[in-house]
Design goal:
alpha+beta; Lambda Exonuclease, Chain A; 2 domains; 5-stranded mixed β-sheet; 3-stranded antiparallel β-sheet; 11 strands; globular
């Protein structure tokens, strides 16, 4: 059997088709499906894209973000990282360019994993590849959910492997399948699909993505006056924000002084901040936990 037949033998997914990433066909499939990269937005875990932004992309009212140079670089590096992983693990077989698979009992649910690993016993598992300038001590939750979605759609629920170039180092992580989390994803996806069918946008949230989406959809300025329904809440939120920002700056200053040039700051033995520096500029504080 070839790798497609081996995947399909799990009776969870069927090959939907193959299209070049970023092509018109590929984008059309994405708009009409719930994919691994959609799940974190639908569940509110994506730090860059909100559920509302995804809604307007799926309905065609908002163009998908064009690939940045950094994103394109990551795509080009994927093949090299996969080859290195294969060289470091000669006892495994790595399959790439698999195409897009759809869930047998829910064809709108699709998966296009970076790769699949076959061990010496013939067991299959998901391979995901990431490239980031950030340093990871663990896989961010939105990426874990992406991998779990691939596990769910393809039925390959063995522990998945995520290989990442993170902070200049090559690291290998394991992502365990979590049925409870996936059930939550399924329910959230069904709710999202219901909103699409009714053409009702999700509620506003506090993400920058939602704010920038509303900005993008807003027309030219009209020289009129309008009473805001959310005026009371808006003013209260602004007052809370100003007070919180002042309090945060207070403790950032204290942490910066306590570190006194030390690179990493911990609390309870867990890294929460570290110092960064641009060129010869002065060090500044970055959060590595809870940000």
């Amino acid at each position: 059997m070839n790798i497609t037949q081996k995947i399909e033998s799990y009776n969870s997914a069927r090959l939907f088709g193959k299209a070049e990433v970023g092509s018109a066909t590929w984008l059309k499939w994405r708009r009409e499906s719930i994919t691994g990269t959609d799940i974190s937005a639908i569940t509110g875990l994506n730090p860059w894209k909100s559920c509302l932004t995804l809604f307007y992309e799926k309905t065609g009212q908002l163009k998908e973000q064009e690939a940045t140079t950094r994103m394109m670089l990551g795509n080009y590096l994927e093949a090299g990282i996969a080859e290195l992983f294969q060289d470091l693990n000669p006892n495994l077989k790595v399959y790439r360019d698999l195409g897009t698979f759809s869930k047998v009992d829910a064809p709108v649910f699709k998966a296009n994993p970076d790769g699949v690993i076959e061990d010496q016993l013939g067991n299959l598992s998901i391979l995901e590849i990431k490239h980031t300038s950030q340093y990871w001590s663990e896989v961010p939750m939105h990426y874990q959910m992406q991998v779990m979605w691939y596990q769910y759609v393809l039925g390959l629920k063995n522990p998945a492997t995520l290989v990442a170039v993170t902070g200049g180092d090559l690291k290998q992580f394991v992502v365990e399948y979590n049925e409870t989390l996936i059930q939550g994803c399924i329910e959230a996806s069904q709710h999202f699909l219901g909103l699409l069918e009714l053409d009702v946008a999700p509620d506003y949230d506090g993400s920058g993505s939602t704010y920038e989406t509303v900005r993008e959809l807003t027309g030219d300025i009209i020289d009129q006056v309008k009473e805001l329904d959310c005026g009371t809440e808006l003013l209260a939120a602004k007052q809370i924000f100003d007070a919180a920002e002042e309090n945060l700056n207070k403790y950032k200053s204290q942490a910066l002084a306590e570190l006194d040039g030390t690179k990493v700051g911990t609390w309870g033995g867990i890294e929460i901040v570290r110092l960064a520096q641009r060129g010869t500029g002065k060090p500044y504080l970055t959060f590595t936990k809870g940000n």
